Amino acid sequence: MLLPRTAKMLTTKQPRAGKVGPATENVDPEKEESCHAKRSSSSPQGGPKKRSAFGDITNARKNQVVAGKKEAAKAAPPKAQKAHNALGVAKNNEINLKKPTKKTPPTEPKVNPGPEKPVSVQEPKPPEERVPAVEDIDKEQLGDPYANAEYAKEIFEYMREREEKFLLPDYMEKQTDISGDMRAILVDWMVEVQENFELNHETLYLAVKLVDHYLVEVVSAREKLQLIGSTAILIASKFEERCPPCVDDFLYICDDAYKREELIAMEMSILSTLKFDINIPIPYRFLRRFAKCARASMETLTLARFLCEMTLQEYDYARESPSKLAASCLLLALTMKNLGGWTPTLQYYSGYNAQELHPLVKRLNFLLTYQPCDKLNAVRSKYSHRVFFEVAKVTPMDMLKLEETLTSS
């Protein structure tokens, strides 16, 4: 088989005598890569050609200059070319003799005038590097698809933003037939419903939030208060539970005081009043997140849950920020267990420093110490069980000792 002419030339062409090809050892990888990029020839079959940017343009211009010089050298006669070369050498020697000899001054190190300055040893580090012992609490669950560890930080930042939208005003001023004590009785009953139906704690917290936000907009009578509470649990169960109770179950726990039509009408009223925006931030979710930051045990987390659930009955705590309330409950639980104070990791993920939480921590300890145990004891009896480590029986801290501990930490 005959080979193409171009292929024959490529295979038979030999390097010129006196020229040495490129070395194969001790070559800089970057130079070798650029060399290959510029020298790679196209295949005889017309395949794609690799080259660096502007490589062919530069080589083409050099080839034109060299070709022009060769043609000029061929056009001139040999004698004229020798005379011209001799005159050029003599003139160059004369110019070099006339030039004064100057000593080159020592080169000074160049200073980069740009905005980036070399970091000295004494220069303080950026704030991210100065913060000690801030660990990534989500890295251990990156492989768990149910943990959403990749988006956990953004999710809780979004919940912190939504807190501002759902801050409660003092709505008891316009409620003529309902008081804070009636609200406490209703919440105490809702805790029993959550325990009897074995609902999630998120369902209970969300149901209480739905009641509060509905009463902000609607003036209600005391006869309808239990209907509002049971309907709020029904809506929260549909939002949080995998298998929520049915309507007949809620009619049964109300001792048939209301009809099915009334319960369904109240559900429509609550949803339309809140414009179906019921994804309200609750302190229970923040509490689980912050306990994970503190590496708290289940017993310590349960104590913090007990403190947080006690605040559901108190109208004064309904207007607190959910994230701040959760952080304060955890700090009090850590202090009661003598497990240390507020760590840099907790401060980073919660957004609160210890000084911001101290007033609310003292109020929580006061509530734990002086709340009467003879009435509305659904929360205390619930957390007195062994399942919840009997955390309701833990002795509250002395107020002076708590003050000293918070100040020293």
UniProtKB/TrEMBL annotation:
Residue span(s) of domain Cyclin-like: 188-272, 285-369
Coiled-coil blocks: none
BP GO terms, sorted: cell division; mitotic cell cycle phase transition
InterPro entries hit by this protein: Cyclin, Cyclin-like_dom, Cyclin-like_sf, Cyclin_A/B-like, Cyclin_C-dom, Cyclin_N, Cyclins_cyclin-box
Entry-linked Pfam families: Cyclin_C, Cyclin_N
Spans annotated as Disordered: 1-130
Gene Ontology molecular function, alphabetical: cyclin-dependent protein serine/threonine kinase regulator activity
Residue ranges of domain Cyclin C-terminal in the record: 281-397
Keywords, comma-separated and alphabetical: Cell cycle, Cell division, Cyclin
Low complexity composition bias: residue spans: 74-86
Similarity field: Belongs to the cyclin family. Cyclin AB subfamily.
Name the UniProt record assigns to this protein: Uncharacterized protein
Native source species: Ficedula albicollis
Record gene name: LOC101806043
